[in-house]
Amino acid sequence: MKLWDLYYTATSLDDAVRLLGEHGARARIMAGGTDLIVEIQSGARKPGVLIDVTRIGGLDAIAFGDDGLIHLGPMVSHAQVASSPLLQEQALPLAQAAWWVGAPALRNRGTIAGNLVTASPANDTIPALVVLDAQVTLQSTRGTRTIPLVEFYTGVRRTVMAPDEMLVDIAFPPLKEPEQGVYLKVGLRRVLAIAVTSVAVVLVRDATRQVIEARIALGSVAPTIIRASEAEKAVVGGSLTDSEIREAAARAMDAALPIDDVRGSADYRREEVQALVRRALEQLRDAEAQDSALRGAILRPDLPQPEEIVRLWGRTRRWPRLSGPTIAHQTEGNEPIQAVVNGENVMVQGANGKTLLQMLREDLGLTGSKVGCEEGECGACTVWLDGIATLACLTPAPRAHGARILTIEGLSTPEALHPVQETFLEEDAVQCGYCTPGFVMSAAKLLEEFPRPTRDQIKTALSGNLCRCTGYYKIISAVEKAAKR
After folding, report:
1. Which fold would CATH assign to domain 332-483?
2. Which parts of the chain have pLDDT scores under 50?
3. Domain 62-308 class?
C-alpha cells in the first residue's frame, strides 16, 4: 500500500516553499514526521505530496538574533532544545516541555515547529512558548508574515496557516532576572505520555519580591492552549503567600474547560490544573530565595544538565545536508533509493511510497528491525540513521536516500558480537527476543555517547523501548555489564 504519491527531498528553503505553492493543499511538510506518519498510516490524513526539509542546512539553528530574541529554526528538534544550555538557562519552561516529549529516538526526530503546527491542545511545547510570548513566522511564495503564537490557533488542530505556508521561525525573548518560569505536566506514565493536563508559568518580580507580571497557560483543558487571566491577576501585586497561591490555583481550575476522554475525566483534569498551578507557583516562590544551585534543583528536578542528557546521537550532532537539485521520488516511478545499509551500497526500487521499516524488511530482507506499534511507542524498529537512533516505522523510505543506515544485522562483525549483544546473552536479558533488537540498538548508541552511563541514563536510553516479557532488570544489568568492558 502506498502512503503518498510523490516525495520531494528539498535541498533549499526556497525550493520547499515553491513546492508548497505548486501543490497547495495536497502537500505537507515532512520534518520529524512523528505525528504526520502516524496520521497517514491510520488514514486520518492523506497527503498526495510530502516535502522533506530535513536535509536543508541551517534550519536546525538555535541562536540569539540582532532583535534580542532567541530564534529556533523549523528543524530544531526536541532533543536539541532539551539539551541546549542557552534554553535551559533562559527558556526553562520550553526545555522542560521538550524533555517530556516522547523518548530519546522520538525527540531526535520530532521538531518544535511540528509540535506547534500539529495544534493539539495536549502538545507540550505550546503552553511553554505561550508564556514565553513567542511569535512564529510563516513563509510562502507570497511573502512572509509574523504573528504572536496566541493568535496562531483557531481550534483543535486548526491554525491560521494557509496551505502554501511553511513555519520557518519561532522567536521569543529570553527570560532574564527577575523573570522565572517552569513547566509541569501530568501524564499516565513517566515517558511517552500525552499530557492529561499541563501548566506553564512565568513570573516577573521586583526588588521587593512582589509579582509585577504573571503569565499562566493551561494545556489539554480546552480546544486550544488558554491563558488563565484571572489566576494571573490573583498573584500580581502580591508576594506569593500561601493564600494568594491557593486563590490563583482555584481561579485556574475555574478557567479550565476540559472534556472527558480516555486519558482522564473533566473533573480529574480540573483538579489537576489546580494542583499543578499551586505546585508551579510554590516552586517559583521557593526557588527565588535560594542560590543558583538550589534554585536549579527546585525548578528542574527531573531535567538533567545539558552535558548529562541522553540523546542517542552518539558522536553526531546534526542531520547531514544534501546539496544539488531537489530530488523527487514518485511512488509509481522507477527512481531508486540509494543508501549505505550496514556498510554496503544498496539501490532499492519500488519503495518510494513506504516507510523505512517496510523497505528494510520487505525489500532488503533485514527483518531484525521489528514491526511493533508503528506509532513510535515500542522502539522495536530502532535503527541508526546517519549515526542517530531513529524509529524506522516513522521514517519515510525516501528519507534514506543518500543516508547511512545501521540495523541490528550490521552491529556485530563476522568475528565478534557487539559487547551489548554478548552481555544480553550472558545476563539472560533476551526473553522472547522480539523487542531485543531495539533494546540493543538503543543501548549500543548510549555506550557510544556515554561509555560509563549512570543507571538513570540507562533507564532514559531504554525508556522508548517496550518489553512485554520482563521487568527490565536483566536488560539494565546487561547494559551495565557491557559498559564495564
Report:
1. Ubiquitin-like (UB roll) (3.10.20)
2. none
3. alpha beta
